[in-house]
């Protein structure tokens, strides 16, 4: 008895020091695409009344629909086990696992060790981290992780890193040795479900809305951000409130701004409704507003905190210059094996100008259409996905760059920003611990053009971090002629084949090898081609997008 009390005291102290408490099923399923391909067919089965368009998924809802053990080999907890310590990464287990009464704690290393080689260059990623998941009871969940990286990149990624000041999907960097980068970040969240109808999630991380590989509403492309997410689930309706703040690392600091970077605040609402077993409709709205300006500190405007009000009328009634966006998400499950999905995002919209077809600068819309085909030709675990994305010039930008739809110098939606169209396909197959995937994409994008006279780049609507007021006059009125891929029209071909072997399904530790082909061509720079061999040992729980 005395021994049991001592264990409880020790565990309690550990939780106090770490600051965590939660429950296994209250954890969120990671956003990593490789993990999500394991469960995609199961959760999209029309027989399951499950909302697949709000990610990451909460495992408490997930476990009600399918048996997680049979699909993912369970990479978090074994409730029946009471071993206090485990120290094997390779035995398909947690590094450290503790379970005592209603408490559970799992601690695992995170690895991202990559080697990339093309004909002239070499890229190396040396990423290490630690992830902690803990649980208390069935209502509270907390997770935390931190990562430290030192990397060198192939030149097209290196050019992006230098020009944008960030590593794609990551944060700010500092110089490492002569040509490398040192960067890191931390994530964590507290999840509390007072009942089956409500979940409150407060953390620092990423969110995703949609059923596609990309999202034109909200993706996990940008760096992590602090957020408060409130999710309400009643019958076939799921409603999400997301309140967050972003950073603009470009804007110069002045005497009024006491922070390292300028802050922007965002409020988002998303309503997902299922009609029968086969059709899901989602309505999205967001507003971006400055936390402060040259005359006052606005803070988080309380007008946007109302969880049920429509944001656009509020923004209009305030007479504000805030950036409001509206969107739609749809999914049609035709059968157990086949589904269609699409998204529409509107920043500005005038039907008469769309019909006129003159390339009005204010036609700021984004569109997505895709399909998923599970168990192709009845071959289990052979899956096909095809997707088309179309984003008009100046979409997501704003006349004031502090109110664009971005964070930490990255778009919050598609990594290519705006002024492009893209077609992308995936074919993958999973056999036991092996995963094979081939993918190919073709994109047409209009980049900004450097003007030697003014010694500046002419803004053709590609970079969402430039004001749409700053645009070239293409027709003498400064209003028309801004068609898709206007500017430096660039073709981007991206193909990749990879083979992955999962070493430890508990942590998704895997070894991967593959080859990537990237070809770009335009009228000024000509053609550039990269054939990249890549190898890696990783715990792929998050996504990083380098296919731009």
Question: Could you characterize what this model shows?
Answer:
With 548 residues, the protein is mostly beta strands. The chain has a single domain, classed as Beta Barrel (Porin), CATH 2.40.160. 11% of the residues lie in helices and 46% in strands. The chain contains seven helices and 26 strands. It has an 18-stranded antiparallel β-barrel. The chain has a two-stranded antiparallel ribbon with strand order 1-9. A two-stranded antiparallel sheet has the order 18-19. β7 (180-195) and β8 form a beta hairpin. The protein starts with a helix and ends in a 9-residue tail after the last strand.
How many strands, what sense, and barrel or not for the largest sheet?
18 strands, antiparallel, barrel
CATH topology: Porin
Content-based structural category: mainly beta
Give the % helix. Answer: 10-25%
- Number of strand elements: 26
Q: What is the topology?
A:
Blueprint: H1 2-18, H2 33-43, E1 54-55, H3 59-65, H4 68-72, E2 96-100, E3 103-117, E4 122-136, E5 140-152, H5 155-164, E6 174-176, E7 180-195, E8 198-205, E9 208-209, E10 225-234, E11 237-248, E12 262-275, E13 279-290, H6 311-317, E14 323-333, E15 338-348, H7 351-356, E16 364-373, E17 382-391, E18 406-407, E19 410-411, E20 420-431, E21 434-447, E22 449-451, E23 456-458, E24 488-504, E25 509-522, E26 526-539
Antiparallel strand pairs: 1-9, 2-3, 3-4, 3-26, 4-5, 5-7, 6-7, 7-8, 8-10, 10-11, 11-12, 12-13, 13-14, 14-15, 15-16, 16-17, 17-20, 18-19, 20-21, 21-24, 22-23, 24-25, 25-26
């Amino acid at each position: 008895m005395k021994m049991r009390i001592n264990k409880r005291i020790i565990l309690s102290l550990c939780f106090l020091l770490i600051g965590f408490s939660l429950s296994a099923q209250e954890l969120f399923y990671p956003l990593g695409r490789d993990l999500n391909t394991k469960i995609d067919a199961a959760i999209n089965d029309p027989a399951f009344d499950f909302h697949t368009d709000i990610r990451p998924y909460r495992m408490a809802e997930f476990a009600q629909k399918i048996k997680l053990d049979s699909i993912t080999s369970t990479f978090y907890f074994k409730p029946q086990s009471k071993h206090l310590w485990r120290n094997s990464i390779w035995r398909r287990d947690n590094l450290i696992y503790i379970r005592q009464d209603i408490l559970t704690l799992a601690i695992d290393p995170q690895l991202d060790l990559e080697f990339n080689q093309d004909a002239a260059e070499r890229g190396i990623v040396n990423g290490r981290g630690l992830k902690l998941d803990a649980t208390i009871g069935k209502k509270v969940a907390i997770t935390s992780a931190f990562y430290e990286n030192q990397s060198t990149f192939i030149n097209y990624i290196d050019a992006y890193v230098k020009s944008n000041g960030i590593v794609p999907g990551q944060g700010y960097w500092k110089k490492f040795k002569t040509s490398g980068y040192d960067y890191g970040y931390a994530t964590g969240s507290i999840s509390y479900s007072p009942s089956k109808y409500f979940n409150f999630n407060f953390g620092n991380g990423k969110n995703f809305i949609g059923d596609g590989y990309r999202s034109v509403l909200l993706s996990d492309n940008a760096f992590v951000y602090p957020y408060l997410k409130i999710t309400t689930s009643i019958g076939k309706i799921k409603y999400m409130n997301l309140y967050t703040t972003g950073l603009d690392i470009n804007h110069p600091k002045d005497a009024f701004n006491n922070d390292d970077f300028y802050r922007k605040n965002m409020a988002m609402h998303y309503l997902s409704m299922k009609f029968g077993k086969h059709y899901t409709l989602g309505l999205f709205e967001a507003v971006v507003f400055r936390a402060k300006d040259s005359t006052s500190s606005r803070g988080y405007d309380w007008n946007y905190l109302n969880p049920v009000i429509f944001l656009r009328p509020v923004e209009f009634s305030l007479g504000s210059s805030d950036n409001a966006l509206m969107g739609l998400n749809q999914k049609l499950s035709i059968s157990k094996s086949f589904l269609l999905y699409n998204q529409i995002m509107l920043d500005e919209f005038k039907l008469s100008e769309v019909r006129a077809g003159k390339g009005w600068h204010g036609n700021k819309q984004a569109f997505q259409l895709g399909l998923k085909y599970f168990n192709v030709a009845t071959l289990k675990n052979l899956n096909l996905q095809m997707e088309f994305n179309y984003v008009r010039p100046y979409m997501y930008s704003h006349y004031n760059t502090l109110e664009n739809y971005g964070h930490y110098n990255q778009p919050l939606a598609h990594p290519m920003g705006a002024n492009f169209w893209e077609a992308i396909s995936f074919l993958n197959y999973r056999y036991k611990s092996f995963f094979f995937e081939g993918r190919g994409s073709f994109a047409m994008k209009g980049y900004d053009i450097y003007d030697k006279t003014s010694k500046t780049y002419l803004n053709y609507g590609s970079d969402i971090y430039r004001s749409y007021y700053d645009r070239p006059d293409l027709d003498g009125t400064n209003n028309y002629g801004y068609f898709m891929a206007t500017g430096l029209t660039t073709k981007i071909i991206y193909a990749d084949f990879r083979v992955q072997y999962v070493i430890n399904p508990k942590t998704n530790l895997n070894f991967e090898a593959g080859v990537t082909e990237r070809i770009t061509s335009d009228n000024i720079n000509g053609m550039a081609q990269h054939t990249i061999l890549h190898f890696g040992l990783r715990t792929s729980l998050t996504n990083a997008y380098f296919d731009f």
